[in-house]
Amino acid sequence: MKRFFSLILCLLVLAGCGQVKKDPNSIVVWHWMTDRQKAFDKLALKYQEQTGIKVQFELYAPSDVYSQKVVAAAQARVLPDIFGILDKKSIMASFVQAGFVADLTEEFQKDNSVWENSIFPKALAVNRFEEGNIQKVKPGIYGVPIDVTNVQMLYNKKLLQKAGINNPPKTFNEFLEAAQALKRVGVPVLVSGWGEHWLVDCFASNYAFNIMGEEKIMATYRGEVPYTDPDWVKVLQIFAVLRDKGALAEGIVAKPNKYAEQDFALERVAFAFNGSWCVNVYHDMNPKLEYGVMLPPATDAQFPLKIWGGAGSSFMVNNTSQVKDKAVAFLKWITAKEQQVFLSEETKNLPANREALSSLPAILSEFAGAMDNTTHPKVWPINETPLVSEAFDKGIQSIIIGEKTPQDVAQEVQQVKEYGFKKAKRVTTQ
Amino acid sequence: MSAITSKIFNAAYAKDKFENFLFIVPAVLIFSIFYIYPFFDIFNLSLHEWNGIDLSREFVGLQNFQELIHDKVWWMSLWHAAFITIIALTLQNALAFALALACDREIRMKRFYMVVFFIPPVLSEVVVGLIWQWILNAGMQNGEHIGLLNYWLAKSGLPQLVHNWLSDPATALPCIAIVHSWKGFGWGFIMLLAGLRIIDRELYEAAKVDGAGSLSIFKNVTLPMMVPVIFVVVVLTILGSMQVFVLILSMVGHGLVYHTEVPVTRILVSMSETNRFGYACAQGVTFGVILVMVSVVLKQISNRMKQE
Description:
The complex is a heterodimer. By secondary structure, chain A is an alpha/beta fold. Chain A has helices at about 1-15, 35-50, 65-75, 90-95, 105-120, 120-125, 155-160, 170-185, 195-220, 230-245, 255-265, 280-285, 325-335, 335-345, 360-370, 385-400, 405-430, and strands spanning about 25-30, 55-60, 80-85, 130, 140, 145, 145-150, 150-155, 190, 270-275, 290-295, 305-310, 315, 350, 375.
């Protein structure tokens, strides 16, 4: 009897180790967008009614935890049918090269590229690998954008009026003057989630484009221009000036973006540096908030100031999914005009579908108006190495807290850059 | 005859041994699968350069460890963890011991205090971090401080003490260490109280009869009897404090420059921000070895104390 039970137990254990059979009429989607879960669930229900296919949106937040989960799932070969990659383009390239992401080029170009033409080219660009890309990925489109976003500055209309400012500042000097006026009436000036490195990076990148232009930035990433170049020092100097003029909110340096959003929504600060997703966040926190959108005020340098944008949230199809075709069909459906209008209205995000722009709320239209000024690391031919980026972002933090000068930080970043080159050479020669 | 008996005894002994071995097989299997294999796999990974996704890994030998030796931020993060540990060992455990001693006496509302003291440890670290983030917030609204501490300082006539607690390198880490101690003292309190409860009361009475005062009783009776419990509390405090990171993430996000970095946050950065899994594993292995060494030293000290 004992042996019989032991045998049954062993069989059960072995059965548990086997692969779970996938329901051919269900699609699993992993995402990180807390604010969109309800809208996604409604769309999933609608899709099931229309096609009989069940779509399960599984939320994993915050985004950094989500990223780790996706990487871990890739290692364990248990990725869902649809997922997003929030990482750098080089990591997306690794996902593609490892065979985790389906090439959707053919689907996008079917029927005279009707799907491709319906999506904003800048949103699609982040998921596209061009001919001759440095990651050596087979050229093609590997993701489906479901919305478009850009990162700009927001201003609180009431607080600006309180300080006697009638129009939002357009130049950096005007911004500094506005900061003085706000300080006089006791209103903190600028808040942002600079406890999150990517937002610091984004702000610095805006001014790098303004001060030296794209070509010189890329030359720096390739190692042809050092970070000690006067133009890079000028970029770092922006943060020193903001600090010296008292234009940064208390605690900005360690503030996660959620807290920064709360500060702006609750009218504690006059300006915020944030992405277009904030419209939904601010609406939830304070529906009566009166604010406008403006480009970060440019310096008088010769190049145009570029903001990060175009890249919204994108979904990738698992190349090994047993329901790959159904996953693609669902993504086509969710990016169609009707669903995009619904998502845009429900979640107050910019739609990825061009035809859905017609019914945008006013504040989102303001965001959409700056799409021509956008750029994004994922569309650049080369990106800075993560180690150098970390040194750069941490360096900016140390400038803000008055620990280091822009020159010190420039030198330190350059040292990290040179160390990276030496290490790469060592590995190549080995 | 004796040869036969010996054979029978040997067979019985072997059978016994085999049966005993069977009992520990599940534990050995689980330990091997979930501890020994991962350790060797992590060590193997630490000898490679890998971004976590690529199918191929590049063998780099001990290069990651060499790099780690020269990584100033890593050693700084270890010092930060040591600082948090020192604060926890002193402040946290002193508080826990003092409160355990108080609750070991016949005082009013003893049970209530015991429950209250045990609330911080059962709260999630994220929740504790967020609560203290709010208490230490340096922002202002309509001329009033948002953070409870600054608000209280300003209202109680101490505006000169109002401070940017979590954004100043001088105060950020001490604040984290204090919050960590506040959160952790309840564990020590419970264990020390349990230790105090099992001390034979007759020892105290005998000491009193011999004319010993409170301090003398504490020094000569309580403290020696509590050594094994104190040792366990010290070991757990060290291991827990060296590995603190959730509290840091929820209080200061990704950190104030490098001033709030601890080993686990550095490992996280290597894994998820700079995508260097091999280096992260080298950090993990090194950190693990350091913790094992600390535990061994503490064990030696404990053994010596027992002998004495």
